[in-house]
Amino acid sequence: MDLAYTEAEEEFRARLREWLAAVLPSLPAKPSPDDWPGRRAYDTAWQRMLYDAGYAGLHWPVDAGGQGATPTQHLIFLEETEKAGAPYVGANFVGLLHAGPTIAAEGTAEQRARWLPPVLRGDEIWCQGFSEPDAGSDLASLRTRAVRDGDHYVVSGQKIWTSHAEVADWCELLVRTDPTAPRHRGISWLAMRMDAPGVTVRPLRTLAGSTEFAEMFLDEVRVPVSHRIGAENDGWRVTMVTLSFERGTAFVGEVVACRRTLAALAAEAQANGGWDDPVLRRRLGRLNAEFRALWRLTQWNVSEAQSSGGVPGTGGSVFKLRYSHARQELYEAAAEVLGADAADLDREWALDRLSSLSYTIAAGTSQIQRNIVAERILGLPKGR
Ligand SMILES: Cc1cc2nc3c(=O)[nH]c(=O)nc-3n(C[C@H](O)[C@H](O)[C@H](O)COP(=O)(O)OP(=O)(O)OC[C@H]3O[C@@H](n4cnc5c(N)ncnc54)[C@H](O)[C@@H]3O)c2cc1C
Fold it and tell me: Which of 134, 190, 242, 365 to mutate to test the pocket of ligand 1 (most atoms within 8 A of CB)?
């Protein structure tokens, strides 16, 4: 990938900066972290603004409703929106960053026309129903079953850790459609309405006190067969596409956010005298180098994804592994700079520090990413 920006890309950047400077001051105040209906309204309103201005689904293919922008333009978009302090995708996370791209890559023309425009407009929110009480890292052992009844599946089982379930309209749901097949072969990927009869959502409280995710109980929920993405029992392959988006590109905007946080931390250290400590300065310097390297890796991953038809490769696991640890180290350094303030739960720093702990678990734990790197990138033998 050519890392130098062309004149056209710089023009794109300038136009975007101008637009951000014009619209951001008019945004309402951010809702509190636990105000989920408020957060949904805020995040979807921002998504609608992006859509109306032609910035929604920037890098999605044009025939999936996107703008067909180059990977570099997409990265410029992420960089500039973060630098300007624009809202994050937030509640739209699953729809925009992995369910939508999966449907764009694997869905039929009708499915793409049905589900993608509302995601891009911010009209519909998605959540992810993959994990179960006994199927997290070992996802293929999932037990939620779907029994065919005419042109419907009847789905029963339990999901857990379903982020944003409380405010979602749709769920990307993994179910077992053939209990007799080898575990990886009898799975299907369904789009399920969250207001369908038989769906019960029970919020779970996180370490930071917020109700970020939920348990989901499914009792004979009827899902039309036409809501299946990919062939029946071929859901594991479709899931690998979803996970490659989740690990490969879904976190890229956050790297820029971490660089902004690091700059704020350095400023705070300079103001409170912490900067005089050479050990702390070295620590912040190393983090700066780490996030710069991660940004370069991001550019490489996005470019690779584009050249392989839009689906990211296993390089995303390297990124996910390093990024999730670097994020934790960033908030550890913050605790050192801020002292007692870092534990003050009324300050965003404290909540971000607690939530940074979850990054080495969500979207596949670090151990699992290491397995993937060892087996699929380095070609080492599989463990017993
Ligand atoms: C903030 C957050 C949001 C999440 N959101 C969602 C969501 O929206 N939807 C969803 O479906 N899920 C979600 N999850 C769930 C997440 O994907 C799982 O927690 C994750 O896959 C780990 O599974 P587990 O919790 O069952 O742990 P387990 O699989 O039980 O693992 C326990 C420990 O054993 C290790 N381990 C397990 N197997 C191996 C192995 N083969 N080799 C080496 N080590 C191993 C793991 O690395 C881990 O340290 C979320 C999780 C978090 C933290």
Answer: 365
Residue 113: pLDDT band with limits 50, 70, 90: very high
246 catalytic per annotation = yes
What number of H helices and E strands is found in the chain?
Answer: 12, 8
Phi, psi of 162 (to 5 degrees): -85, 100
pLDDT interval class at 310 (50, 70, 90):
low
CA quadruple 38, 42, 44, 47: dihedral, nearest 10: -170
Alpha helices in 53-108 (DSSP H): 71-83, 93-94, 100-106
Q: How far is CA 263 from each of CA 35, 53, 270, 285, 326, rounded to the nearest angstrom?
A: 29, 30, 11, 11, 15
Question: Does this model's pTM top 0.85?
Answer: yes
- Matching residue, tokens 């689904």: 57
Token reading at 161:
């850790």
Instruction: Answer whether 362 contacts ligand 1 (Cβ < 6 A).
Output: yes
Is residue 208 helix, strand or coil? coil
Q: How far is CA 188 from CA 21, 206, 227, in A?
A: 45, 30, 11
Looking at the CA of residue 138, tell me the nearest atom of ligand 1.
29
**Cα-based distances in Å from 106 to 187, 239, 253, 301:** 15, 10, 24, 20
Cβ-in-10-Å burial (0-12, 13-18, 19+) of 212 comes to: buried
Tell me how far apart the alpha carbons of residues 48 and 56 are, in angstroms, rounded to a whole number: 8
Residues in the chain: 384
Burial 313-344 (b: 16+ CB within 10 A, else e): ebbbbbbbbbbbebbbebbebbebbbeeebee
